[in-house]
């Protein structure tokens, strides 16, 4: 393309081996997709040139100290309070807040969308008083029987049904662990004040499952999307649902038969949880049938699926295949359904689907769109929804090796495995080195990378975590260049795609940053989060909440704020900095003082890994015991290891070393000048006492 300069460094970069693979092979693969060689060369040069430019453009990323992480976490809390209070004052009970005009608007279903979507974020931030009051209002006032709205099955499922179910489980979790929450609140002034507010917490203490009853009612109305009104049958021919349903009357006779892959393939987590909590297998069976219907129609040549499908004939109507819009969460729920619900067939389906994506869609660090039938390049584009993929890859890396120790006989119990993975264990091993060489003020991520023990692995470059790191770096380079991620970014022209220049306050890149920080403990990811938060604060903050951008380059704002800004974007930012503020010496939990690991839905709703979800539950009181909770404290451990269970939010200690994208080793260990106690060499709270050195 005219205007794309191909200099010597770009050519050298394409030819230079990186991680055991040559860029030239990737160029040859692009050419093999059916493009003219000149066109392939231009695209490859443009695509690959972003990565070295990103590496050169980030010397300003400095290590974020524990004290600064704490300050950034509180800045995110303030952003949430500003937005949530603005919504409650100006928009509630409308669906969304208009941040520039300070008004409310019903957009998706007239069901107080922003409130329902952000309930579990209140719990993550520790605001149990407001969580209890809001949950009570939702349980008493959200009546879908009175609604005559036609809603998106996909959006209502992930935002509303997911929000209700997550809030229900958190309410039960609070009742079960109120003592631990309030005792642990002594170190948190905000939580402590709330635990003293007896009246404010009474709504949670008296909770009797109202949110689950509302969720069950909604689930039944969404399940009507699987009925066929034309044939007057209880199921469509393929087992795929319609994309929209009227909450009172069901599917309209003239409803379109076209559905997106993501819409039909993103039900397993919410429908599965609903079945496990109520004992009614209907919802999980419907979600499974829909997922398998898509899977059975994958290409026999590439293993890929398309973007849109006819739910009556089962024919693909849009053959473009990628990991972004219209497809993304299909892959996500194959993996997360297997982890959360123990669905072994989903795990195998994900393994094959993931291999197909990596073989056919990945070009360098990017993922393009190809024809599902033959893998020929259709559109070299990065869209904002693709940014969830590096986060999913960290889960893949975590989950793929979890049972290796058991299958080879190296571990005798889940308890031993958990002990091996705790932050405290690795911190103890590194504490002496930390004290002698870098002091307590700097997270020891570089030392952790050195301790992986995989330096000589020949498959290092193909390891899922290495791929995630490379792709995340490339995607963040787009943010660095434009101050936000546009909805679409042309990799051939290296600029925002025409008509897709907006930034909708999306969470996907923040989400992947959070996962990668937990997996690697690389402090540079805190720097990435700091840059994204600063851009959002300076460009998007408005009188009432935060406004999305109509154009990432001009900075023109629009009077629109999606509910996922509270449900996901701010939640992931808060959790990123909370993990950074705790370093390696204090355990980071998604919800403070609750003893669960969690799986995040595609909307960022949190579902705890409990016995009631991992094994088919019975109607009645929710069993909130963590998995294998009866093993804790036993010297001998226990042998009831659940197949398919992995720890998705814990460091991946056996990951290979990789070339740092952000900071050279010397900069990573050099603390920026500042007046914090951490910078002065004092150990953070909870650190082992300093001795010697």
Description:
This protein is mainly alpha-helical and 693 residues long. Helix content is 48%, strand content 7%. It has 27 helices and 19 strands. The strands form eight sheets. The chain has a three-stranded antiparallel sheet with strand order 7-8-9. A hairpin with a 4-residue loop joins strand 16 and strand 17 (495-496). Helix 15 (328-341) packs parallel to helix 17 (389-400) and helix 23 runs antiparallel to helix 24. The N and C termini lie far apart (59 Å). 52% of the residues are buried.
Please give the structural blueprint.
Layout: H1 8-15, E1 17-18, E2 21-22, H2 23-32, H3 37-56, H4 66-90, E3 96-98, E4 103-105, H5 113-117, H6 119-124, H7 128-141, E5 150-152, H8 153-184, H9 189-196, H10 198-205, H11 210-223, E6 244-246, E7 258-260, H12 261-264, H13 268-278, H14 282-296, E8 308-310, E9 316-318, E10 320-321, H15 328-341, H16 344-360, E11 362-363, E12 366-367, E13 369-371, E14 377-379, E15 381-383, H17 389-400, H18 404-407, H19 414-421, H20 423-438, H21 445-450, H22 464-482, E16 488-490, E17 495-496, H23 508-520, H24 524-540, H25 564-582, E18 598-600, E19 606-608, H26 611-614, H27 665-669
Antiparallel strand pairs: 1-2, 3-4, 5-6, 7-8, 8-9, 10-13, 11-12, 13-14, 15-16, 16-17, 18-19
Helix pairs in contact: 1-3, 2-3, 3-22, 4-24, 4-25, 7-10, 7-11, 8-11, 8-13, 11-13, 13-14, 13-15, 15-16, 15-17, 17-22, 17-23, 22-23, 23-24, 23-25
């Amino acid at each position: 393309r005219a205007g794309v300069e191909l200099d010597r460094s770009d050519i050298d970069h394409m030819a230079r081996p990186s991680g055991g693979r040559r860029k030239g092979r990737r160029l040859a693969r692009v050419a093999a997709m059916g493009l003219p060689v000149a066109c392939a060369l231009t695209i490859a040069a443009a695509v690959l040139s972003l990565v070295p430019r990103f590496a050169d453009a980030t010397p300003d990323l400095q290590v974020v100290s524990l004290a600064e992480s704490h300050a950034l976490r509180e800045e995110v809390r303030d952003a949430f309070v500003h937005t949530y209070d603005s919504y409650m004052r100006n928009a509630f009970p409308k669906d969304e807040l208009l941040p520039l005009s300070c008004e409310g608007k019903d957009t998706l279903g007239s069901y107080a969308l922003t409130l329902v979507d952000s309930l579990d974020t209140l719990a993550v931030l520790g605001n149990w008083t407001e969580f209890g009051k809001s949950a009570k209002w939702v349980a008493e006032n959200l009546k879908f029987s009175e609604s005559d709205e036609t809603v998106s099955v996909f959006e209502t499922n992930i935002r509303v049904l997911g929000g209700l179910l997550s809030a229900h489980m958190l309410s039960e979790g609070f009742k079960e662990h109120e003592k631990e929450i309030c005792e642990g609140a002594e170190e948190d002034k905000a939580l402590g004040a709330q635990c003293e507010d007896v009246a404010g917490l009474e709504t949670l203490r008296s909770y009797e499952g109202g949110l689950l009853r509302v969720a069950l009612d909604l689930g039944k109305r969404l399940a009507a999307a699987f009925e066929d009104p034309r044939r007057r049958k209880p199921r469509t021919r393929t087992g795929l649902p319609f994309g929209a349903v009227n909450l009172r009357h069901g599917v309209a006779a003239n409803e379109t038969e076209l559905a997106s892959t993501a819409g039909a393939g993103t039900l397993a987590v919410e429908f599965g949880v609903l079945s496990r909590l109520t004992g009614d297998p209907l919802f999980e069976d419907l979600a499974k049938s829909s997922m398998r219907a898509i899977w059975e129609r994958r290409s026999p040549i590439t293993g890929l699926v398309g973007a849109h499908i006819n739910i009556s004939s089962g024919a693909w109507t849009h053959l473009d295949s990628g990991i972004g819009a219209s497809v993304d969460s299909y892959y996500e729920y194959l993996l997360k359904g297997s982890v959360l619900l123990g669905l072994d067939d989903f795990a195998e389906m994900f393994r094959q689907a993931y291999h197909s994506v990596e073989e056919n869609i990945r070009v360098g660090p990017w993922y393009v769109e190809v024809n599902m039938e033959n893998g020929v390049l259709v559109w070299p584009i990065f869209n904002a929804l693709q940014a969830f993929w590096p986060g999913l890859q960290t889960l893949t890396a975590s989950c793929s090796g979890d049972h290796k120790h058991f299958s080879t006989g190296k571990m005798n119990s889940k308890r031993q495995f958990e002990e091996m993975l705790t932050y405290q264990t690795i911190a103890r091993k590194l504490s002496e080195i930390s004290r002698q060489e870098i002091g307590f003020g700097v997270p020891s991520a570089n030392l952790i990378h050195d301790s992986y023990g995989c330096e000589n692995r020949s498959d290092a470059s193909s390891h899922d975590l290495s791929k995630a790191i490379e792709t995340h770096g490339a995607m963040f380079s787009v943010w660095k260049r434009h101050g936000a991620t546009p909805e679409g970014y042309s990799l051939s022209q290296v600029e925002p795609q025409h008509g897709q220049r907006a930034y909708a306050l999306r969470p996907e890149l923040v989400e992947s940053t959070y996962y990668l920080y937990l997996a690697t403990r690389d402090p540079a990811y805190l720097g990435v989060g700091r840059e994204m938060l600063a851009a959002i604060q300076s460009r998007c903050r408005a009188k009432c909440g935060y406004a999305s951008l109509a154009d990432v380059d001009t900075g023109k704002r629009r009077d629109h704020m999606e509910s996922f800004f509270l449900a996901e974007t701010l939640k992931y930012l808060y959790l990123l900095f909370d993990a950074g503020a705790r370093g390696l010496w204090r355990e980071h939990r998604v919800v403070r003082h609750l003893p669960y690991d969690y799986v995040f839905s595609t909307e960022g709703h949190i579902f705890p890994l409990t016995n009631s979800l991992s094994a088919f539950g019975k109607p009645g009181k929710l069993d909130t015991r963590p998995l294998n909770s009866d093993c804790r404290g036993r010297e001998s451990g226990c042998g009831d290891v659940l197949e398919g269970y992995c720890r998705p939010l814990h460091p991946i200690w056996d990951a290979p070393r990789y070339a740092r994208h952000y900071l050279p080793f010397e900069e990573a260990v050099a603390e920026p000048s500042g007046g914090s106690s951490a910078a002065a060499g004092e150990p953070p709270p909870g650190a082992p006492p300093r001795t010697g050195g």
